[in-house]
Description:
By secondary structure, the chain is an all-alpha fold. It has ten helices and no strands. The two termini are 24 Å apart.
Amino acid sequence: xxxxxxxxxxxxxxxxxxxxxxxxxxxxxxxxxxxxxxxxxxxxxxxxxxxxxxxxxxxxxxxxxxxxxxxxxxxxxxxxxxxxxxxxxxxxxxxxxxxxxxxxxxxxxxxxxxxxxxxxxxxxxxxxxxxxxxxxxxxxxxxxxxxxxxxxxxxxxxxxxxxxxxxxxxxxxxxxxxxxx
Length: 181
């Protein structure tokens, strides 16, 4: 099983992601929840790198970008731009749906209790974290591997991270100078 290879820090991120999903009443644990859990961490390699690349004063902007994407039903900016080229105004659609059904109507279903499954996207991040660790010739999967995987999955989370200077290359370079091991 892959989770046996996760460090304590990586397991804490996964657990934190589940907690974020539960608090938000989400149907499933998503890549966004994994990122939010990473942002909660302190004293780990990923926390140190995030602290350098996206300092605390910029985190509110990152979280706001995730919330805005959630409001657009998870469409990335690239998705919205592609639809605009076809004459589809995502902003106008969101506004009409929210006018009829309330704010955040496109942000996904609500679930009050029960165990949340991991979305396909979140599972992809977890699988990529293993591949990242193996490519780096590291035996365990740390929270830094989860962060690296989040930067490569595409979609809203990777886009929001990149917009805030957190790219695979930047994280990889910062890990080379990270003081924590």
